[in-house]
Amino acid sequence: MFSFLIYVFVTSITPGPSNLFMMNTTRIYGLRGGKSFITGILSGFAFLGLVSYIAILLFSQWITYIETPLKFLGFVYLIYLAYKILTSTNKGTTSNAYHSFKSGFILQVLNMKSLLFFITLIGAFIIPSVTGSTSILIYLMISVFIGWACLLVWAFAGSVFNDWLNKHQTSFNIIMALLLLYSAISIFF
């Protein structure tokens, strides 16, 4: 459970397309002006969680065959993500093209970080340790709520968070990369 929570938190709070777009939107339009876009991103994330839940239920008979490949995929992805975080720079997005609910929803549903987040979550953390559709749903709901909270941190922080990252980016990246490395290794224990 601890590794699961670390994985969900770290992958949700670290910079990604949705986080950066939410931060930029609130910086440009404020919370009220960016509300539709923010709601679209949050809805897209919940939609991906629901699709993941349905996929687990529909393909449960094949879970034992795909569990090991999903664990390795999750491990490799976490190592890759840790590397990307460690080597990332302070490049924010400057596009103001994303302002509507539809834009936020589509951005989130097509966001590779979110798609791989749910694939890794299911393969590395949920399938190996959780049984029963109710338990799976609870884990996915916890993931969505933590993801929402982290996305909202970026929305509320706006330019203030951006300033903090400019000052402490290296330390932040090292800590997040090490936590992801821990999560990757714990997949096999």
TrEMBL record:
<feature type="transmembrane region" description="Helical">
    <location>
        <begin position="37"/>
        <end position="56"/>
    </location>
</feature>
<dbReference type="Pfam" id="PF01810">
    <property type="entry name" value="LysE"/>
</dbReference>
<feature type="transmembrane region" description="Helical">
    <location>
        <begin position="6"/>
        <end position="25"/>
    </location>
</feature>
<feature type="transmembrane region" description="Helical">
    <location>
        <begin position="136"/>
        <end position="158"/>
    </location>
</feature>
<feature type="transmembrane region" description="Helical">
    <location>
        <begin position="104"/>
        <end position="130"/>
    </location>
</feature>
<dbReference type="InterPro" id="IPR001123">
    <property type="entry name" value="LeuE-type"/>
</dbReference>
<feature type="transmembrane region" description="Helical">
    <location>
        <begin position="170"/>
        <end position="188"/>
    </location>
</feature>
<keyword id="KW-0472">Membrane</keyword>
<keyword id="KW-1133">Transmembrane helix</keyword>
<keyword id="KW-1003">Cell membrane</keyword>
<keyword id="KW-0812">Transmembrane</keyword>
<feature type="transmembrane region" description="Helical">
    <location>
        <begin position="62"/>
        <end position="83"/>
    </location>
</feature>
<protein>
    <submittedName>
        <fullName>LysE family translocator</fullName>
    </submittedName>
</protein>
